[in-house]
Amino acid sequence: MDNDVQHTSLPDPEPDRPLLSGWGRRTFLRTASIGGLVAGVGVLGSASAFAAEPGTGPNRPFGKFELLLLGTQGGPPPEPDRAGISSVLVVDGRSYVIDCGRASVTQYKKSGLSFDSLEAIFLTHLHMDHLADYYNFLVLGGLPSSQKNDMIRSQIPVYGPGPAGGLPPAYGGGEVGTVNPENPTPGTRALTEYLDQAFAYSTNVFMRDNAFRDIRELRRITEIMPPASAGASALGDTAPRMRPFTVMEDDRIRVTATLVPHGPIFPAYAFRFDTDYGSITFSGDTRRSENLIELARGSDILVHEAIGDPRKFGMSDEALEHMLQSHVLVDECGPIAHQADVPHLVFSHLVEWGKPVNIGEWTRLGRKGYSGKVTVGRDLDRFAIRR
């Protein structure tokens, strides 16, 4: 590969000063049972090449193909220093959002992107930490703002998982309640329609009192289900070995997907985005996956989830094994990037246990078994790929 990648970010933290607080030990013990570029060249830019005040983000014109990390926090618990998991690919001035975690709408505007540039939304899976701002992109993005009357002006395609079709038994046994037993596993379409119902009063009043548009006309939902030949199911193998399949293609980008194993969640996807300028793959939430490695092979960047090692808290072997059905330890991601022949590994969806994410330590751990570039993502980091 001969692509150059320029990385701009917030300033580096002070030496030995961690950037963010992770889940506390008490929270972790309470929730431990929940599965919760170089391309052959050096990085052309760095934090010193573009300084930005923490929280303001690098607000400059976007190049032909850039990756922007809106939020890098993994898991539902909110953190004050990181927004929830969400990324954007900007291709020839059009914005493709991947996951919509907490505060991602605010981050989107903070980055300088416009709602008028929003081209599509992709959801890797239907865990709440990936969905917190999903409806906000539509309902708030559909309203005129004070900034040059910026708003969604055309129907936005939304690509997300279809219905799971079944619920797993409770981890550890016992009985648990079921929310909405008439439809306990809604896919992206039903989820969105339930949100329409929940906000019906507000929407109806706004349409009558302020001439706001009907939010139902602002999106076009496509539910992604794996090919039947894969033999996947919610109560069987959620991510059997399979070939990548095409999700969508337009005149700027081609999107392919594959199933990845994320505990009991089904379907859960990794996405690859190919453009004339280069390719970027998002792991979604997953444990180590041959499907992901095949999908990512030869990408310019692999954006991969990671968790810190919880064994420092004396987690039982059983609980650890349960956690690793859904996620990958940070020091086990490098071999994945190596096997996929990816020159740049970017960590996002970060989960640390009882201490802040230490950028230097995570970078070192990410280099185990991997000779490419490792970046521990921070909110509003940008990566420009130039061919």
UniProtKB/TrEMBL annotation:
<dbReference type="Pfam" id="PF00753">
    <property type="entry name" value="Lactamase_B"/>
</dbReference>
<keyword id="KW-0540">Nuclease</keyword>
<keyword id="KW-0378">Hydrolase</keyword>
<dbReference type="InterPro" id="IPR036866">
    <property type="entry name" value="RibonucZ/Hydroxyglut_hydro"/>
</dbReference>
<keyword id="KW-0255">Endonuclease</keyword>
<protein>
    <submittedName>
        <fullName>MBL fold metallo-hydrolase</fullName>
    </submittedName>
</protein>
<dbReference type="GO" id="GO:0042781">
    <property type="term" value="F:3'-tRNA processing endoribonuclease activity"/>
</dbReference>
<dbReference type="InterPro" id="IPR001279">
    <property type="entry name" value="Metallo-B-lactamas"/>
</dbReference>
<dbReference type="InterPro" id="IPR006311">
    <property type="entry name" value="TAT_signal"/>
</dbReference>
<dbReference type="InterPro" id="IPR044094">
    <property type="entry name" value="AtsA-like_MBL-fold"/>
</dbReference>
<feature type="domain" description="Metallo-beta-lactamase">
    <location>
        <begin position="85"/>
        <end position="133"/>
    </location>
</feature>
